Structure formats: C-alpha cells, structure tokens
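Pipeline run #58 for the internal structure catalog. This entry was flagged by the ingest filter as a single-chain record with no existing model, so it goes straight to prediction. Upstream metadata was stripped on purpose; only the residue string is passed forward. Reviewer on rotation: M.T. Logging verbosity set to normal.
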Amino acid sequence: MADEPALALVDDRYEVLAELGRGGLGVALRARDRAADGAPLALKVVRDLGDAARGLLEAEYRALARLSHPAVPPPRDVGVVRRVERLPAAARSSPDIEAVLAALRPGAPFVARDLVEGQDLFAATRGRPWSEVRPLVVGLARALGAIHARGLVHGDLKPGNVIVVPGAADAWPVRLIDLGPGETVEYLAPERLRGAPPDRRADLFALGATLYRVLSGELPFPGRTASEVARALLRGRPAPLASRAPGLPPAVVAAVERLLEPAPARRWRSAAAFLRALGEASPQGEEGAVAPSLAAAPLVGRAAEAETLARALDLAAGQPRIVLVTGGPGSGKSRLLAEAALEARLRGLRVVAPDLGAGAG
C-alpha cells in the first residue's frame, strides 16, 4: 500500500487510493494519511445533506471518539472537504475514478477511521458450517451489545459493515464499521420504513436480517427493487429460516426469527438476551450499564478549564495561540487535552499529538 499510486489528494493530507464501496449516503475510500506517516485509513465521504446531517455526523464522531472497544475502529478525523487535487495516477485508473472525484467535491462532510483489512461477514462465512460460523455470530452480537451499552446505535448493520479480521482474538473476531443512519432497505426494521429513527430494537432487527442472510444465503425479504423489498418487509415475516437453512439447530432458528419480529416489543430486548438464547454468556455491562472498558468516564470537575480551552480554539482559527496546561500527576491533564483535541477536529483544525511517553506528567 505504501507504493500504491494515489489518485487524489484531499486537503493536502489524505491520499485517496481506491473506492471501498458506496451507498445512498456517500462513498467509502481507501486512503493514506500523510500526517501519520502514510497510515492506512478509510475515508467516508457523505453527501452534503445540510446542517442537520453534518450535525449528526459530528455527534457520531464525538460518541465514537469516546468509545474504546476492540470491535469498533476508532475515528481519526472529521471535517469538510476543502480542497481536492487530482493526481497523475488518476488518468491511468478505471472510469470509476470520475465518480470518486465527484464525491470528493469541496463542502462534502467526511469522517476518517482506521482501515480494517478482512472479508465482510457474508463472504467470510459462505459455505462454512454452523460450528465455524457460531464464533463470528457471537462476536457480532457482543460487539453490538457493547455499542448499545454506551448508549449508541449502529443504524446501518448489514453483512458488508461487519468485517471478519484474520487472526483476531477469539473474543472479538469481527469489526463493526460505518455506524450511522443507513439506507439499505433489505436490513431496515419495518418501523424505520415508517419513519421511526434508528434505535436499539431496529439494530436487533438488522442483526436478525444479517444473520438470516449469512445462515441461509438468501435475503429475508427479497425483491427486484427497493420498493418490492419494502412491501415484502411491511407485509410481515420472512420464509421460515429452517426451510432455507436445513440442519441449523432449532434453538438458533428460533433465536434469529425472534429478532425478525415485526413488532419491536416482541424482539429480544437486547443483544445479551439473544446471546443467552444461543447458550452464550454476555460480558458484564451489556444489559444497559456502561462496562468500564467500553467508554471513557465523563469529564467531571473541569468545566472551567474546558471552557477556557474552547475559547482558545475559537480564537485559533484567526491567529496562533499558546495555552499552557499544568497540573500534578493524576489531575486530569491528559483527559482534558483529549477533549480539546476532539473539539479542535470538530472545528476543522489540524491536531498534532506527539507521544509524550509513559512517564510524562
């Protein structure tokens, strides 16, 4: 990847290498970060849907930036495309480069996150028996439960947004990517089609649709067009999973089909409840309380200092500023600076964060 020619340069920082995929809300690009020694990234560029949509994107970034979990790649940057430079390699690329460059128009919101290498869940499980698929299903449900425990929802759960990582630890064999409201109708809960916002029960329906697809090889609600799929989905339940995937244990069939109940109240109340139906214990904290390892504690007792840093960031857009943060060991300097870095990125400022070493006070 280090020697791969870049097609375009975004904001003099991100070298775009190829398209990873696209959907109704935008396009995902494979890129390198010049500011991080060419580190590989996924650049999610979203159609400019107005101030409200940009606000949702920033809120998603804030939440994910505070979520620390091995199954969710952390975001690295958020902002708006300001400048795009077409590079010579673009002339030798496929015709699709024109669509990529069109998505990179100035003004388009974007989020950069760590790049996850691996296969999507459907490709990784095709032709494999339940005994080999089960650890991935358990890992997926646990990861979704971890997101819900933080008070977040995925909003666009589908096989393409679940990446199976080769050689990953058994507890977390998958990564969940592209959190945020999606438009893939095949995996939308019926209440979403009726205009309801994404929530935990809608995520659980999407989990059921994803698992139905993975275990049977077929979509639960097939159709030639999105409108046909939507009509099938609103009519009720899919074909019995046992008829599409003979040989699955009855308990697995029943657990997945309950996720696909049309009425949200009839679905499993949580990913942890679904795991118990499979005979799996769920990690502590997945029922609703935040497990200690999943999220940073809220910033407490530093409101005045945070406000001072916020004012400095506002002024930094017009002229250089130096703010000295001091305090004894354990006084919260690192956390305060982390919050300041998050706010700086949301303001479109460049953040440089050197490694101060384990003993830095």
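catalog note: The mean pLDDT is 81.
catalog note: The CA atoms of residues 9 and 85 lie 5 Å apart.
status: ready for reviewer M.T.
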